[in-house]
Design a protein that fits this description.
This protein has 364 residues and is α+β, with helices and mostly antiparallel strands. The chain has 9 helices and 21 strands. It has helices at residues 18-23, 44-53, 73-80, 128-135, 154-161, 163-166, 202-213, 222-231, 266-275, and strands at 2-5, 11-14, 27-31, 34-39, 56-59, 66-69, 92-99, 105-115, 118-122, 138-139, 144-150, 173-178, 181-186, 195-201, 218-220, 279-286, 297-300, 303-314, 319-327, 337-342, 345-352. The strands form 4 sheets. It has a 6-stranded mixed β-sheet with strand order 12-13-14-11-5-15, with helices on both faces. α2 (44-53) crosses α8.
Length: 364
């Protein structure tokens, strides 16, 4: 499905829920080749707070689904991806990376291990074709919508719609039925809150979305999704992950299956592990409300020591916050004061160990 174009003549893809978003008055924006809701009339801050305090629903259908099947699917993915699938089993989900030969992250991915010979691999929107080229499988993205129901009350609201979907455990994968069709649900998300992500065939997606919203769940757009993941200290591909950025630099060494015999990028990561990463991902909290912005320099003792890769305003902390890389030899500690230089202004901030919400006690 497509609607509009990207300015270069290529059509934007649209979710099966596109008409529902327009009917709700969503502000639609291009994202990763898709036309997606940025925010609804209530606004990003209200949607963000609703996720922290009650429950919201995101349309994340722009994420890809690459279906890998067959008796050799396990071994193929085990060799292609960084994490060790032997840590999980059918009916479980796993966060992993597709790496380049230099150890940098081509994409970060969630693998849904549906049954013995079926894996639904979920890459980022703009990387789906690249992931298909690397791992094979069939791109079935157009066949379904993915609806993320997130927040402390998410499961209670969802249980009225589908008790089976609401009962899925964290990082588990289950089947459930809606409108006479088979759906999938995983206990995953990208907000720092509890919740699930439901993969619903396109023909049943709108009725499922409407049923969820009818329980008082607030629709939320990409704006809140970004501020929520930033508060939670979760990396975003193209910012904290991408060319030249390795899992070790991003603080995601646990995504590397060191016990596996071989996987793409292993040799480069082994060398980096032996020498120590030259830079590390850190969190930043400004002293004031001014949003921090990606690309801003981080200065300490009049020396440039790093750069912000993401930044925004935190609705919960009511401060500017950001993520960025700091040079390892700067030897900065959590709580140390730094200066963020952006657009000619100097903003006082301090280093904070992610997540940035909830607030950690200084003694932790």
């Amino acid at each position: 499905m497509s609607g509009g174009d990207d300015g270069g003549g290529a059509p934007f893809r649209v979710s099966p829920l596109h008409a529902a978003h327009v009917a709700l008055g969503a502000k639609m924006v291009p994202f990763g080749g898709w036309d997606m809701p940025l925010a609804y009339p209530s606004g990003t801050v209200a949607e963000h707070r609703a996720c922290r305090e009650s429950a919201v629903a995101f349309d994340v259908s722009h994420l890809g689904t690459v279906r890998v099947r067959g008796g050799d699917a396990f071994e193929h993915l085990q060799h292609s991806l960084s994490n060790d699938l032997r840590r999980i089993h059918p009916g479980r989900a796993q966060y992993t990376h597709l790496l380049d030969d230099d150890g940098s992250v081509i994409d970060d991915i969630i693998v849904w291990w549906v049954d013995d010979e079926r894996f639904d691999v979920m890459p980022n929107a703009s990387n789906t074709s690249e992931v298909v080229a690397a791992i094979g499988g069939n791109d079935v993205t157009a066949e379904r919508a993915v609806i993320a129901v997130q927040g402390p009350e998410a499961r209670a609201h969802l249980a009225v719609v589908s008790p089976e979907a609401a009962a899925v455990h964290r990082f588990s994968v289950e089947r459930f039925e809606w409108d006479g069709v088979e759906c999938l649900v995983a206990g995953t998300g990208y907000t720092g809150e509890d919740g699930v992500e439901c993969s619903v065939p396109s023909e049943a997606a709108t009725s499922f979305w409407d049923a969820v919203l009818a329980q008082g769940v607030v629709p939320a757009g990409l704006g809140a999704r970004d501020t929520l993941r930033l508060e939670a200290g979760l990396p975003l591909h193209g910012h904290e992950l991408g060319p030249g950025i390795t899992p070790l630099q991003a603080g995601l060494g646990w995504v590397v299956g060191w016990d596996k015999e071989e996987f793409t990028g292993r040799a480069a990561l082994e060398e980096e592990r032996a020498n120590g990463p030259a830079r590390r991902l850190r969190g930043f909290v400004a002293d004031g409300r001014q949003p921090l912005r990606d690309g801003s320099e981080v200065v300490h003792d009049d020396e440039r020591v790093g750069i912000l890769t993401s930044g925004n305003y935190s609705p919960m902390r009511e401060r500017g916050i950001g993520l960025g890389f700091v040079e390892a030899d700067a030897r900065l500690l959590d709580g140390d004061a730094v200066t963020v230089v952006q657009r000619g202004r100097e903003l006082a901030a301090r280093l904070v160990r992610p997540p940035l919400w909830p607030v950690r006690e200084e003694s932790d």
